[in-house]
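Dear colleagues,

As part of the handover before I leave the project, I'm documenting each prediction I ran so the next person doesn't have to rerun anything. This entry is a single chain, and its sequence is reproduced below.
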Amino acid sequence: MTEETVRASRSQTDVVVEGIKGMILAGDLRPGDRLPIERDLAERLDVSRGPLREGVRALCIMGVLATRQGDGTYVTSLDPGLLLAPMSFLVDLQSPDGVRHLQAVRRVLEAEAVVQATLHIDDAALAEASKLLRDAGALLDEPAADHEAFMEADIAFHRIIARASGNPALEGMIDALAGRTIRARLWRAISEEGAEARTHADHMSIFAAMRRRDPDAARIRMSAHLLGVEDFLIDHDESDAISRLS
């Protein structure tokens, strides 16, 4: 395939991506709708079938479309969490400096999320968080540390807060940014004595502020908690941290 052919194919693929996006924005395609058959869609967008398939694949990767085996291609729910999920790929490709920058962004987002969660969280979510913290505390009392289980509890606690913020876009961004840094924090738990106990104490302080409905205290506690993660990434070779987990 010549370079000109590749450029032409990419251009037509862009036409497909923009065309389908335009159909969604115009209301011609709504969440859950099935795409027109390939022949009709190619004719509508004035492209050949090869670029059409490439464009559809690209939109599937973005979470805009989903292909059902033997049943065609559909518009997804377009939920912000789904559309933001590919951002985790960007996070995973970052250099150590890039990861530290993204962790700083995450701190800002989670500080806002915990404020909104404190104002809006219901009793059921508070009870869920309380049980999670009790279970995490029990893990700390075990003679053999289960780092994986503790980290799962850590992730779940932050997700409860993000969900309780009532902002799906904020929740999606936090979830996407947490991927690689969580792996570094797992290494922190393994390599740094007392790190899990300090994390649990931080979580208890955040939860106490939320239960008191004190958004300012919750923000301060969350910011301090995540600053500890940033300090660790600054003080340690994050590349070595990741290699130990690979």
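The mean pLDDT is 85. The CA atoms of residues 184 and 240 lie 9 Å apart.

All the best with the project,
I.
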